[in-house]
């Protein structure tokens, strides 16, 4: 069983109180790949990087986490995207991006796309998010959807996480169409009610629930005192609550780690409801630490690498 996670990881600069910048790396599907690797799942990150030193360091860091690098394309003369996290006097964080020229956006552009597409179609499972969809433009997305159809034609499966970021989509109708296509191709859907309402308006969950029976669906709702995941598969429909978090420090990568915990548990043969409990436990631990990636020894005991 081998998984491919498709997307973009960027250089992250966080502004310190004296104006200096601390460097890290970040990206939603990369976070999921990282936690999958820690949970013992064989996973490759499928993206494009440049041939600069930051691309080298990023790939080396992924490799140290056990993520497979065999499908990382390196585009000569290109660079990764970059963002700065600024924290204001009240402690509110804002994110500022330079990503339009990022190498990752050309994953489905020639030269090289044909090889990537053939390789992708051979995985057992491909995981991607709404942010992945926003990277490629119409032609790239069409190539991606054709590739997912080829994968499914061979018996491979697709997992889609709705992660919707309005700034990635200048025209909301384009996002709606892309999400509808991805949802129709997904065998496993991770959706947050909040994302769906932003994208589709009230009752956005209907766009996901129309796939019940055909797809396995995990619908996350974070409103109310404790978050819940509604798990739907075949005819069953169960609400799995999260344990109240001991402390919430930084919710970055909550959804990304949730997806990893769920997928790892399902691959290990656990039932969907048990997988949701395990996913809540990992996400609940991740939000108790600063940043997307927690120390290895902070992983929940059962999930420790
Ligand atoms: P995202 O917005 O990144 O998709 P969600 O808000 O959907 O993340 O949260 C994902 C998961 O993170 C939840 O299902 C839950 O397991 C965990 N989580 C998030 N916030 C809390 C919280 N306050 N208490 C406990 N768990 C939480």
Structure description:
It is a single chain. It contains ten helices and 13 strands. The structure holds adenosine-5'-diphosphate. Adenosine-5'-diphosphate (ADP) binds next to helix 9 and helix 10.
Gyration radius (Cα, Å) is: 18 Å
In what order do the strands lie side by side in the largest sheet? Answer: 5-4-1-8-9-10-11-12-13
Unreliable stretches, pLDDT < 50, 5 or more residues?
A: none
Number of contiguous helices: 10
Helix and strand topology:
Elements: E1 3-6, E2 10-15, E3 21-26, H1 28-38, E4 43-49, H2 53-64, E5 72-74, E6 82-87, E7 93-98, H3 113-120, E8 125-129, H4 130-135, H5 137-153, E9 157-161, H6 172-185, E10 188-192, H7 193-200, H8 205-209, E11 216-221, E12 228-233, E13 236-241, H9 254-267, H10 272-286
Parallel strand pairs: 1-4, 1-8, 2-6, 4-5, 8-9, 9-10, 10-11
Antiparallel strand pairs: 2-3, 6-7, 11-12, 12-13
Key features?
alpha/beta, nine-stranded mixed beta sheet, 305 residues, 36% helix, binds adenosine-5'-diphosphate, four-stranded mixed beta sheet
Short description:
36% of the residues lie in helices and 23% in strands.
């Amino acid at each position: 069983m081998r998984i491919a996670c498709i997307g973009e990881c960027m250089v992250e600069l966080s502004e310190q109180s004296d104006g200096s910048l601390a460097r890290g790396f970040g990206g939603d599907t990369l976070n999921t790949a990282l936690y999958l690797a820690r949970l013992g799942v064989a996973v490759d990150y499928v993206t494009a990087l440049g041939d600069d030193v930051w691309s080298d360091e990023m790939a080396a860091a992924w490799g140290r986490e056990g993520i497979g690098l065999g499908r990382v394309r390196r585009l000569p003369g290109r660079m990764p995207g970059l963002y700065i996290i600024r924290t204001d006097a009240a402690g509110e964080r804002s994110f500022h991006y330079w990503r339009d020229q990022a190498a990752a956006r050309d994953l489905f552009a020639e030269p090289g796309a044909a090889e990537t597409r053939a390789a992708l179609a051979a995985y057992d499972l491909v995981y991607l998010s709404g942010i992945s969809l926003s990277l490629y433009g119409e032609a790239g997305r069409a190539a991606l959807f054709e590739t997912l159809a080829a994968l499914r034609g061979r018996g491979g499966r697709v997992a889609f996480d709705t992660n919707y970021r309005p700034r990635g989509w200048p025209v909301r109708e384009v996002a709606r169409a892309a999400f509808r296509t991805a949802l129709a191709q997904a065998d496993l859907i991770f959706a947050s009610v909040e994302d769906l309402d932003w994208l589709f308006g009230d009752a956005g969950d209907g766009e996901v629930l129309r796939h019940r029976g055909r797809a396995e669906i995990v619908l996350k709702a974070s409103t109310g005192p404790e978050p819940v995941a509604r798990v739907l598969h075949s005819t069953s429909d169960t609400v799995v609550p999260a344990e109240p978090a001991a402390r919430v420090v930084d919710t970055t990568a909550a959804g990304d780690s949730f997806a990893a915990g769920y997928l790892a548990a399902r691959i290990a043969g656990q039932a969907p409801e048990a997988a949701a409990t395990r996913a809540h436990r990992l996400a609940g631990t991740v939000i108790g630490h600063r940043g997307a990636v927690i120390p290895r020894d902070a992983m929940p005991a059962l999930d420790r690498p």
